[in-house]
Amino acid sequence: MSDVAEKPLATALPADTVWIEKVSWISKAPRWASMLGLLVLFLGLWQGITSAEIVSPLILPTPGDTLRDIGFVGRNLMAGDYMLPAFWVTASEVLVGFIVALAIGVTLGVVVGETSFGERAVMPYIVAVDTMPKLAFAPLFVAWLGFGIMSKVALAAFISVFPIIVGTAAGLHAADENARMLFKSIGASRLQTLVKLKIPTGLPQFFTGLKIAAISVVSGAIAGEFLGGGQGFGELIRVAASQLDTPRVFSLIIYLSLLGLFMFGVVSWMQYRFVFWQRSSNTISSRAPR
Q1: How many Cβ atoms from other residues are within 10 Å of residue 6's Cβ?
Q2: How far is the C-alpha of 157 from the C-alpha of 172, rounded, in Å?
């Protein structure tokens, strides 16, 4: 027997055979610490830029001025002053626009995802409209529906409907071929296959489109108020910007972002509630260190 064969197996293997994943210290940090660190870094850079007067304070206010105006807007909302009706107007446009987009998006998504006519004839037109600059339609909505809330609702629904259509259609195609063949072999009808196989399988894709729509609907409502007037937060932002009141503009934008986060949170909760078999992959928090 040769010398190589007589060597013990452990000594014959190279030392780096076993691969060990190296996790950086920043990846080991708890989520709250990472988010807090990024916030402090962002505020520090912001304060540094304003203190060095790199940008005029008329364009970029200091973090302190912005925080003070955030407090003022919050007190105004809590007291029910003139900002509260404006907030409700914008919130109504967002909510109604989202409901309209949901109804139209699911209907067109089912047509596209479930019928060959929809996939071959309807989908190209949807893609063509989606590639158009949607904000350019705002004057048309104002001309058709007037300066009231309906033109803003229409623009909000128009901007947010396409992710719902794509998510619904993609979800209906998510079921694999083996599952389709199984339902066909047991004699399931088209409706039974849709309700018991395609819809449950496609819920993750559907909620992904719904999350994108929940955020974009706020942008649509505000864009409608910018371009078509109104009584909501978009009008307050336009007036504050015309007066170079940039702290007010920042504070109103932050409150609008809270409205978008609320919409996103509601959809995420619904996904967590109904797509319970994918909870481990839906929630990053279940995997991230705390």
Answers
A1: 7
A2: 22
Planar angle of CA 255, 258, 262, nearest 5 degrees: 145
The pLDDT of residue 16 is above 80: no
Q: How far is residue 184's CA from residue 157's CA, in Å, rounded to a whole number?
A: 37
> What value does the mean pLDDT take over residues 239-252?
91
Rounded Cα gap, residues 224 and 139, in angstroms:
9
89 Cβ contact list (under 8 Å, min separation 6)? 149, 230, 231, 232, 233
Residue 48 burial (C-beta neighbours within 10 Å; 0-12, 13-18, 19+): exposed
Q: How far apart are CA 224 and CA 234, in angstroms?
A: 8
Q: For the chain, give me the number of helices (H) and strands (E)?
A: 16, 0
pLDDT band at 23 (very low <50, low <70, confident <90, very high): confident
